Amino acid sequence: MAGGAVGVSSVAVNSTAQTVTLTLAAPVTSSQAVTVAYTDPTAGNDALAVQDLAGNDAATLAAQSVANTTPPPADTTPPMFQSAAVNGANLVLTYNEALDATNVPAAGTFAVTVAGSPVAVSGIAVNSATQTVTLTLAAPVTSGQAITVAYTDPTAGNDALAVQDLVGNDAATLAAQSVANTTPPPADTTPPVFQSAAVNGASLVLTYNEALDATNVPAAGAFAVTVAGSAASVSGVAVNSTARTVTLTLAAPVTSGQAVTVAYTDPTAGNDVLAVQDLAGNDAATLAAQAVTNNTPSAAGITINDTEAGNVINGGSGNDTLRGNGGNDTIYGGGGNDYISGGAGNDVLIGGPGTDLLYGGAGADRFVFQSLADFGPASAPDYIELIAGDGDQIDLSAIDANSLISGMQGFTFIGTGAFTGQAGQLHYQRGTQGGTQLVSADTNGDSKPDFQFVVGASTLTANNFILGS
């Protein structure tokens, strides 16, 4: 038996059943391997042998395997708790063996806490095959909440109202255990929120507060960009999910100091793939025109000291120093914050975009603004030194004084009078520096300045301007 000999303490023969029963000195246990052999005591027939009713001896029997039908010992081991997990309103306890699904424990034997507060158990189901007890909670848990579960065996012995295995062994009382919370977070319905915008040359970058969908890119037409008050085309759009940015490529680069705005229009009222959207597909809201931080570096300035003859002098996009000296010169500052001096002669000075300092010098000089982009920002307006006795004039004839109607309209000079809500009014007031005047224009009738510049003069009259018509 299992490799060791076991003594036979007695033998019984049942003629009718045709059996020989051996009583072993020690009982075998379930699943042990057993063999039996028999030796006929003599060569002939004799009464001390296994024989039939006629006295014929059974032959010697070599070792034979014996079917071991000894039943296993009774199961007295209770089921053991393994783990617990919750998803919404379903809390599942897993045990280490099949459970009794016919006799279900009472709800009151379980205690559940959610975020430190008790939550009632409204139902219990036992699944024998999956070795689980599922508690239905009166209120579902949410993602991230801390959950515990405890169980109390209702009596000291085995009973039908407990968590038990198939033979009725009760599971032990369970102190509060942490429960794995697998409840998914709620669906993301919050759209990405615009944070800021900055431009450098031809790249305008809008930053949002969360990762964006870089697979579905909004159309260029959904964006509106202005540079120095004029519309600028968007030639390309790229989305970087990780950086949370939308980068617009402008058809023409901006220059340092130019005022830039950007606006965005969500193409539809619902969520769609042609919009700025987050990874869950929530569309960013329509964005009214926002000021853009201009990080475009200034180009290197140039310095030109002209001869005494009249010449045309062109600055670059940097902060230039341009001197005409003698002669009737025409000087273009270009982009940047330029210093322009006409010197002697009847000069034409065109500062261009940026904050420019314009000095005509001797002679009847003309200071020309060609577009709204030529006026410096309100925080740093252009400065013009005007010598009225020389016949200097400030030429605004290329600027439309009234943006509310079509065509080119001339300005109306109202001296130091206040704006009265009429588009096209031009007035001045004392500047912050002695001997200067701050000139302002209202082009849309809202009584607020739409552009400004400073003039170095003790007073101003309509004759100091070319107002247009």
From TrEMBL:
PROSITE patterns to which the protein is assigned, alphabetical: HEMOLYSIN_CALCIUM (PS00330)
Swiss-Prot/TrEMBL keywords: Secreted, Signal
InterPro entries, per the entry: Cu-Rt/internalin_Ig-like (IPR014755), Hemolysin-typ_Ca-bd_CS (IPR018511), Hemolysn_Ca-bd (IPR001343), RTX_toxin/Mannuronan_C5-epim (IPR050557), Serralysin-like_metalloprot_C (IPR011049), Swm_rep_I_cyn (IPR011801), SWM_rpt (IPR028059)
Cell location: Secreted
A matching Pfam family: SWM_repeat
Presence of keyword Signal: yes
Domain of life: Bacteria
PANTHER family: S-LAYER PROTEIN
The protein, known as: Calcium-binding protein
Origin species: Methylobacterium thuringiense
